[in-house]
Write a structure and sequence with these properties.
heterodimer; A: 449 residues; mainly alpha; two-stranded antiparallel ribbon; 22 helices; 4 strands; 2% strand; B: 774 residues; alpha+beta; 4-stranded antiparallel β-sheet
């Protein structure tokens, strides 16, 4: 389906929408799809996120719908506040691209420019979201009904109504997951703001320039290529195997497998170094040391895993959201459905492949990182299907998106198309969004009961 | 354990017990003595004793129970009391045999489903048949004598949420799906469903066959609805729909009650409701004991409608007795009031109330604005509290609200019928007053009448003697006053318009008395709605002993429904008011009114006409017009301006006038009343308005020969030097009215064309077009 069979991964591009993906790949895709044309016509300049997502037009359609609905005038929160909340959210992941974008949107929505000087200049009501923002971004499983109560209960401080809160929560988690996508795909700043952006230490360009590609890579290129082909074939065999396996496991074994996935995932992003935040985002972040921690540090009093059967989006999450923010519930539901069903039946050079097990493994692995467990899923599959480099990438993008590097991006699935890697990022973004929403909606449910 | 029979109702009370963990499902054993509770961390059997639940058996055994014990659903076999089946969250279907001697009662384990099994269901009569529905989209039928499934049904769509064997049709089962579909299957044909239809938007969480009615299926979905389907017809037909306030997790028909079903919610709402499907707006009964959502509901005995069991996420198991249920209908407010989009008002109340009201009503039957009544016939078969209510819909046929809310019919009508010029001033006023009156706008009507009185010359000068006599004739007048005030009261009760403007009702009394030879009364009217009666009568307080009679009863006003023509007030006299009227503003504003002539005397204009120059009223009129304009009735303001002409023009400043004109013209044009708007423009005296008629009056024409624009003013095209606009009949240049057919664009002199088309259908130019002259 895609034209580019051999992707030259050795030369990252610094022009075009993404630092990781050659601009031709994205631009080639553009004219073919009507959905892509539509937003292109609407705004003279399509932003880079849209362009990269345009590789998957069916999804892009839903995404834009949801995003427009979030940022359209209807709703309990003022428009400028909504942009500010996204700024808060994306700043936690040091996603200067989105901070920049929403800062200007904040101003054009009539926001007070004082607020942009830092969080403590903003309305005290907004500042009270800080804890929730922090938890949602890094450890959503810690959110309890007390956090909700604190915000919603009438007290001396400015309090949030449930309708406002639910919108804020959706905005926050939207911001977090979109940061994952932006950083995971190495989205570059828009040209008109590039002048200041290039000085940002954390823009993806900087990452790339830090590590110049060694010359010997080119020589080994051919060898790697054949290796990669073999990898794809191996993966496909495994997928077949997983699909056909009929073996039985005891619960203990299943639990062990789930635990193994979880703990193993902890070890992978080796350097968890707290680097100083870039100036552009630091003033929107309080408590920058609060970062993702493994869901359940061994031995410590662990919050129980969230069983997907006990609190699922389809049954519970949607029902609650539908009550409080009906329109968004429908849109999110549609988006989740689209992203879960999205497939082209291709894998690298192979066509007509049933990729459902692979997609399921990705989705469940991300939920596993966030401590959500499916009783009816064998987490052994994750180990079978997701190679180590992919796991490293996923874990990094989902939990520490600011640490994503081009090396990580290029080292997994070397034979796969860029569009397929973007697909991974879409799954990642949505799975992360759903996980965060599940936790916070569960807390709200508990608060309400 | 006591044995229950179908005949004697179960005795017992509302009771509960604490479970150790949240329940996911419950099921009752055939003889209604035991209940099984299953959940993620619980699988127990309780006996239901007279006084409480007693734990009989814990089926969750083993040091570290496997996920097979984590139950999403449980079902007790309906004929074999030792047989249970559970659906496990890990995709296993397990059967349990209570007669097994060892502690572990697990009998068979089917692990054919790949994902969570949402539902298991035993066949109601077949002992060995078990059906399961799973998240993986498959339904499987197991034969318990074999160790594996005998058939697999693929829904070809998303996850299966519920499966239910039909009570009556041996081979049929229904399955509900996450994508909103419901499928009907024949157990013998695993290849294809018999029928499929979309029941809900979003997942259908549950379905239940009616125990008695063959072919009735109730479904509950995430879209907060319970629907009852008639499956006996070719297409599944929705026969009832109940709107709940949260996603419906379970639905169960109530035994022995044809129309009743019980529901519980998936989220947020913790109550269990029993609905009468024919009254879908309010639950028949509510059980409010649970502190978290109920996850399982079951009627204890298939023939006892009074005992309901429920398990909940709050880790309790309840037995609800029907007599302890709360009946929301008792607390419901039987009255309702609602405004429609177009100002219609609907009001529902208990029949008894309405009947009393109707009896009191003096309205004639033929009145179009009479409220429409709907009575709901009480249904004797219904068990609902006998609520019979009446709904009245009041429609504003003509808009009575002086603020111009609601429909604008009156506006259009008024604009069409008002006369603004062409007649003497008094006649214009009278005509307009009549128009307003007919359109049920008494305030406006009165204003017109007042304007006439204020500015026109006294038409029929009353004799000064009249005035003198009045002083003497006190006693008959007292009576007439009483009459008048009672008439007023009555009228106001019904009309509930701004009371003041109804005072004109009195005109008929006036007239009566004039014919009788006694005096009329003075009425103090003022065209301003803001004035209240206290102000109006303040002066009379000092002098009148009759005062209390004159005060309008307060209770008459709040009900403010539509304005009705009063049948007892003959209209003709009201339209042509004979009796003089004085602006109320004058009464309070000046002492020029003779003090002795208060209310008891007929005040004719003659009394003060000589003393008051017409300009005297100008401030009042100006205030009145401004008031109208501010109320949004710019029509009145402009019409009065035009009719009054010079009398008032100087009083209102130019800019305000212009503003009113512009607003009125815009309104007229919005309603496509082009002629009226043009007339208004023509009649206006503001230069800014009149020049509107001069704007865009140029008509650009093309030469009929060379088809290029004619740019000079003559009749000869300067391009082709031929005469344009030649009459098709006489072939001369048309100077003056040129009429042409819009179909073929040929034309000529108006006269010629008319003549021609009288005897011919075809275009005179010979183009063959069938022109029409209308």
């Amino acid at each position: 389906m895609k034209e580019e069979n051999t992707v030259d991964l050795t030369q990252p591009l610094s022009t075009g929408p993404s630092a990781f993906i050659p601009s031709e790949v994205i631009l080639d895709e553009v004219p073919g799809h009507d959905v892509m044309k539509e937003p292109l016509l609407k705004v003279s300049h399509t932003d880079h996120v849209t362009m990269v997502m345009g590789l998957h037009p069916a999804y892009l359609h839903c995404f834009l719908h949801t995003q427009n609905a979030l940022l359209q005038p209807d709703g309990p929160l003022p428009l400028s506040w909504r942009h500010y909340i996204i700024i808060m959210a994306t700043a936690r992941h040091q996603c200067s691209y989105l901070v920049q974008k929403h800062s200007s949107a904040f101003l054009s929505a009539g926001g007070d420019d004082h607020w942009l000087r830092g969080l403590h200049f903003a309305s005290p009501k907004i500042q009270r979201l800080q804890t929730l923002n922090k938890l949602l971004a890094h450890r959503p499983w810690l959110i309890s009904q007390e956090h909700i109560k604190e915000l919603v209960c009438p007290g001396a401080e400015p309090c949030w109504s449930l309708a406002e809160l639910i919108q804020a929560v959706v905005l926050l988690s939207h911001g977090h997951s979109l940061s994952s996508f932006v950083l995971g795909c190495g989205i570059l700043p828009e040209p008109h703001s590039s002048a200041e952006q290039h000085s940002q230490p954390h823009s993806p360009v900087a990452h790339i320039s830090q590590g110049p590609i060694p010359a010997h890579r080119a020589r080994t290129h051919h060898r790697e290529l054949t290796e990669a082909v073999n990898e794809v074939q191996l993966l496909m065999e495994k997928m077949m195997m997983v699909q056909q396996q009929e073996e039985e496991f005891t619960q203990e074994e299943m639990v062990t497998r789930f635990e193994r996935e979880r703990t193993e995932s902890l070890l992978e992003p080796a350097e968890v170094v707290c680097s100083a935040l870039p100036d552009s985002v630091s003033h929107f972040v309080q408590d920058p040391d609060f970062i993702y921690q493994d869901f359940c540090p061994r031995g410590e009093q662990s919050p129980p895993t969230l069983r997907a059967q006990d609190y699922s989006w389809e049954d519970h999450g949607f029902s609650l959201m539908n009550r409080l923010y009906a329109e968004m519930a429908q849109l999110l539901e549609e988006k989740f459905q689209v992203v879960c069903a999205l497939t082209y039946h291709t894998m690298a050079m192979h066509t007509d492949v049933d990729t459902s097990t692979l997609r399921k493994a990705l989705w469940n692995y991300i939920h596993c990182i966030y401590g959500i467990r499916y009783d009816d899923y064998d987490y052994g599959d994750v180990n079978q299907l997701l190679e180590r480099s992919l796991k490293v990438y996923i874990k990094t993008v989902a939990c520490h998106p600011e640490k994503t590097t081009f090396r990580m991006y290029s080292s997994f699935w070397r034979q796969f198309h860029h569009s397929e890697k973007v697909h991974v990022n879409l799954l990642l973004m949505e799975a992360r969004l759903q996980a965060a929403l599940l936790y916070v909606l569960r807390a709200i449910t508990r608060y309400m009961t | 354990m006591e044995k229950m029979t179908c005949v004697s109702p179960l005795s017992g009370k509302t009771m509960f017990c604490h479970l150790d963990a949240p329940a996911n499902a419950i099921s009752v054993c055939r003889d209604a003595t035991q209940v099984v509770v299953a959940g993620r961390n619980i699988f127990k059997i309780y006996a239901m004793e007279e006084t409480g639940f007693v734990e009989r058996l814990n089926l969750r055994v083993g040091r570290k129970p496997s996920l097979n014990f984590s139950c999403a659903d449980v079902m007790w076999h309906q004929s074999d009391e030792n047989l249970l089946a559970t659906a496990a969250t890990n995709g296993a279907v397990v059967t349990w045999n209570l007669s097994r001697p060892c502690r572990n009662k697990q009998e068979l384990l089917f692990t054919e489903h790949k994902r969570t099994v949402n539902k298991v269901c035993f066949h109601p009569s077949e002992a060995h048949m078990l059906l399961s529905g799973s998240q993986d989209g498959f339904m499987k039928c197991f034969d318990l004598r074999k160790k594996e499934s005998v058939s697999t049904f693929s829904g070809q769509s998303e996850s299966v949420r519920d499966v239910q064997f039909s009570m009556k049709d041996y081979f049929t089962f229904a399955a509900s799906f996450e994508n909103g579909n419901v499928q009907l299957w024949d157990i013998r044909r695993p290849d294809r469903y018999e029928r499929m239809f979309t029941a809900h938007t979003g997942p259908v969480f549950c379905c239940d066959w009616h125990p008695d009615d063959r072919g009735w299926l109730a479904t509950g979905g995430r879209d907060k609805m319970v629907k009852v389907w008639d499956m006996t017809t070719n297409r599944a037909k929705e026969i009832h729909c109940v709107q709940t306030i949260a996603s419906v997790a379970r639905v169960k028909w109530r035994p022995e009650r044809r129309w009743h079903l019980a529901t519980c919610s998936m989220m947020v709402d913790h109550n269990i409701y029993v609905w009468d499907v024919r009254r879908p707006f309010i639950p028949f009964a509510t059980f409010e004991e649970h502190k978290d959502v109920a996850t399982g509901v079951a009627w204890r005995h298939p023939h006892d409608p009074y005992v309901l069991l429920s398990g909940s996420k709050d880790s309790t198991l309840y037995q609800h007795m029907f007599r302890d249920a709360s009946r929301p209908v008792d607390r419901a407010n039987p009255e309702g009031l609602c405004f429609g989009l177009f100002g219609d008002l609907a009001f529902a109340a208990k029949e008894s109330l309405m009947a009393g009201d109707a009896g009191r009503k003096p309205y004639p039957g033929g009145d179009r604005r009479y409220p429409i009544f709907f009575f709901k016939k009480p249904d004797v078969t219904e068990q609902f509290a006998q609520v019979s209510s009446a709904l009245s819909v009041f429609e504003f046929e003509a808009n009575g609200g002086d603020e111009g809310r609601g429909r604008m019919d009156w506006f259009v009508e008024t604009a069409r019928r008002y006369l603004l010029t062409g007649k003497p001033f008094a006649e214009l006023c009278d005509h307009n007053a009549k128009v307003a009156k007919e359109l049920n706008r008494p305030q406006v009507s009165t204003t017109w009448t007042m304007l006439r009185i204020m500015y026109s010359d006294p038409g029929n000068p009353a004799t000064p003697a009249n005035h003198n006599i009045s002083k003497l004739g006190n006693i008959p007048l007292m009576i007439s006053l009483k009459e008048m005030s009672s008439a007023l009261n009555e009228r106001n009760k019904e009309n509930r318009v701004d009371n003041l403007h109804n005072l004109e009702t009195n005109l008929n009394i006036d007239e009566n008395e004039e014919t009788e030879g006694s005096e009329g009364q003075a009425e103090y009217l003022f065209g301003d709605a803001e004035l209240d009666d206290d102000d109006l009568y303040s002066m009379e307080h000092d002098n009148q002993t009759e005062e209390p009679e004159y005060i309008l009863p307060q209770e008459a006003f709040p009900l403010r429904h539509e304005i009705v023509d009063h049948p007892s007030a003959p209209e003709p006299p009201a339209e042509k008011p004979e009796s003089p009227q004085v602006s109320g503003g004058e009464t309070e504003g000046s002492c020029l009114t003779p003090m002795e002539s208060f209310s008891l005397i007929s005040v004719s204009q003659l009394l003060f006409q000589p003393r008051l120059p017409p300009g005297f009223f100008s401030p009042v009129v100006r205030a009145a017009l401004t008031h109208y304009a501010e109320l949004g009735d710019v029509q009145m303001a402009v019409s009065a301006l035009i009719v009054l002409g010079e009398r008032i023009r100087k009083e209102v400043d130019e800019l305000t006038q212009e503003h009113w004109y512009m607003s009125y013209i815009e309104l007229l044009q919005r309603f496509e009343l082009w002629n009226v708007s043009n007339e208004v423009i023509k009649l206006s005296t503001c230069s800014a308005i009149t020049c509107l008629n001069q704007a865009s009056t140029t008509l650009h024409i093309n030469c009929s020969n060379c088809k290029r624009p004619m740019n000079n003013k003559g009749w000869i095209c300067d391009r082709c030097h031929q005469c344009a606009s030649v009459c098709a009949v006489c072939h001369h240049v048309v100077k003056g009215l040129f009429v042409w057919c819009q179909g073929c664009s040929h034309g000529g002199h108006l006269e010629h064309m008319r003549e021609w088309l009288k005897h011919s259908n075809h275009c005179p130019a010979g183009c063959g077009h069938l022109c029409e002259y209308t």
